[in-house]
């Protein structure tokens, strides 16, 4: 499976009760571009009243997503790790990106460290930023039967 970032434009009712056109980014788990678009359309039909347009799609560079039941924001976390290239006998620096749900940066940092705790390879968190991703739609096996 692969994560895809999907940009969508639609009309949303604001807190003031007025409709306004918004552009939002969603993350969806799929095996292909076609499946990504089809699954996104099905998800959008559930909460968007009226028309919507998928205006962008790209493969995400995220290595993994860590959802939590609580967490107002999605934070994108960048980490660097050093591995050994066995064939060349040299150290190799790798940059990985993760997405984690949290209410603030400190909670995101704590949750990220807890999630990566089992990792044997040493790593350094090089950045934590609030992501523009509004929601994620992971793949569940029971979706195959629908």
Describe the fold and architecture:
It contains two helices and eight strands, in the order ββαββββαββ. The chain has 146 residues and is α/β, with parallel strands linked by helices. The protein has two domains: 2-60; 63-130, no CATH class. It has a four-stranded mixed β-sheet with strand order 3-1-2-8. The protein has a four-stranded mixed β-sheet with strand order 4-6-5-7. A hairpin with a 5-residue loop joins β1 and β2 (19-30). The longest helix is centred in the first third of the chain and has 15 residues, at 33-47. The mean pLDDT is 91.
Write the topology of this structure.
Elements: E1 2-13, E2 19-30, H1 33-47, E3 52-59, E4 62-66, E5 73-85, E6 90-102, H2 105-116, E7 123-130, E8 133-137
Parallel strand pairs: 2-8, 4-6
Antiparallel strand pairs: 1-2, 1-3, 5-6, 5-7
Short description:
The protein is α/β, with parallel strands linked by helices and 146 residues long. It has two domains: 59 residues; 68 residues, no CATH class. The strands form two sheets. A four-stranded mixed β-sheet has the order 3-1-2-8.
List keywords for this structure.
alpha/beta; globular; 2 helices; four-stranded mixed sheet; 52% strand; 8 strands
